[in-house]
Amino acid sequence: MLKLRIVTAVCLLLFFLSALFFLPAILWGMLLLGMTIIASREWCTLSQFNTKQTLVYLIVTTLLGGELLFLLSAVVDINPITTDMVWPYVASLLFWVLIVPILLILSKPVRNTAIMMLIGWVVLLPILLAMYQLRAIDPITLLVFMGVVWISDTAAYFAGKKFGKHKLAPQISPGKTWEGVMGALLAVLCYAIAIGYYLEETISFVIMLISTVVALAILGIIGDLFESQLKRQAGIKDSGAILPGHGGILDRIDALTSTLPVAVLIYLIYSHVTL
């Protein structure tokens, strides 16, 4: 299983980097939309939609995602740091900061189909737009923000495995510990300092960068917990099986759904403030 996970991870990384740096914008957008549709199918499983509800959800997601991506591309191609399409990122921020913590604390499944459809769109569509806009700004910028999640996840795993004693959310994800969280925050702190040193930026910029990556790491943990809660409520281990050894698309992007929309929002605010 470990060998399979490693092979899949390497193939995914090579494919992603090739697409990120070499695909034309239109093909990059189509790739992101395709991944969103697959993730939407997995969301239907987590939400326990029936066949008719799943079909309706996939059709609406495809149309809505395609339309939003078209509108974003039209303005981003002119000005990558445009704020004309900032509202999905704001909606994402409000959802992850205000709504999800309440859902995690209550730990009760949402049975209303319409609400689960709406939640799915708030989870999946902003990350679609964020990945498109961040790549338009600079592919390296997208990688830097994704690196926050990768480093946080890796550090949390090893710190939790080595020092973990106090459970973070035993009813949702028994494997996560407070020691893992501390390890993740320490790792992204070092990550931010290293970036600031490499860029030779001012102390104030480094402090802002540290605050940003720590906030993103915390949001990533919340996103991870939220998907874990949905899987537990649905009685499944993985959201899908499209990625051998890794599960589904949602299993790979759970933390990114809560971080990348907020990351691009912070980047846009900073860019316009410093202009």
Brief digest:
With 275 residues, the protein is mostly helical. The chain has helices at 2-22, 25-47, 51-76, 87-106, 113-137, 139-163, 178-199, 203-234, 249-273, and strands at residues 167-169, 173-177. It has one domain (2-273).
Counted by DSSP, the helix tally is 9
Largest sheet: number of strands, sense, barrel closure: 2 strands, antiparallel
Shape: globular
State the separation between the terminal residues, measured CA to CA: 50 Å
Mean of pLDDT: 92
Structural class given helices, strands, pairing? mainly alpha
Number of domains: 1
Helix percent band: over 70%
What Rg do the Cα atoms give? 18 Å
Please indicate the percent range of residues in DSSP E strands (runs of 2 or more): under 5%
Order of helices and strands: HHHHHHEEHHH
Give the total of beta strands.
Answer: 2
- Which consecutive residue ranges, at least 5 long each, have pLDDT under 50? none
Strand order of the largest sheet: 1-2
3D architecture notes:
- There is one protein chain.
- With 275 residues, this protein is mainly alpha-helical.
- It has one domain (2-273).
- 80% of the residues lie in helices and 3% in strands.
- The protein contains 9 helices and 2 strands; from the N terminus they run ααααααββααα.
- The chain has helices at 2-22, 25-47, 51-76, 87-106, 113-137, 139-163, 178-199, 203-234, 249-273; strands at residues 167-169, 173-177.
- Helix 5 packs across helix 9 (249-273).
- The mean pLDDT is 92.
